Amino acid sequence: MKILIDDKEVENRAYYLPWYSDATCFNFRCPDRQIYPNDIDKIKRPSYVETLVIACVLNDYSFIRGMKNLTQLYIYDGTTLEDISFVENLTKLRQLCIIKSHVSSLNSIRTLIEKKDMIYEKYIEGASPKEELCIRLKYAFEGICIQTDAYDSDGKELLNGTISRDDIRVNNHLISYGEHIRR
Question: Where are the domains of the chain?
Fold first, then answer.
């Protein structure tokens, strides 16, 4: 299920696409359901949500924790967002985009990457090349984009050769795994 949380009705939506693999958000013009910020508690089956786009300011993001099958998360106005610990157990997450935030630490994303890597390593043992590719496609990140005014490091702690290696952007700086290896 694709859900949009927004405080206004807008036709023909267009969203900022921070990475090269942009088909998912580009095709999000037609969410299965739009929810207003005051109606978040009406999401009765959070585990059914695969794509979540938040296009307005929210005071609480903790409800995202229950979205265990979430593969894409886009927060386009995170001006009240400082803590992103809600992502730590979203092991199916493949695209993460948080814009206009006040996030001061990427440790929760690093924790998520470590968990995803452990799952990957568990399933990869004895897998054929085809099975390995399928496992990688299921657990690896396609892209991470974080824009925040409270984080002042380079974001390279998010690099992982298997789970996250390309298309990581922190404050508009592209971090690539290849550059990290060469240094």
Answer: 2-182
Q: pTM here?
A: 0.88
Partners of 174 in the β-ladder: 169
State yes or no: pLDDT of 74 exceeds 60.
yes
Question: Over the stretch 14-66, which tens digit does the pLDDT of each residue have?
Answer: 666 665 555 545 555 567 888 999 999 989 999 999 999 999 999 999 999 99
CA–CA distance, 45 with 33 (Å, rounded to integer): 13
| Reported CATH class of domain 2-182 | alpha beta
Nearest to 115 by CA among 79, 144, 139: 139
Is the Cβ–Cβ distance between 155 and 141 less than 8 Å? no
Query: Cβ contacts of residue 118 below 8 Å, gap of 6+?
Result: none
Three-class secondary structure of residue 76 per DSSP: coil
Of the candidates 96, 92, 45, 60, the one whose C-alpha atom is nearest the C-alpha of residue 75 is: 96
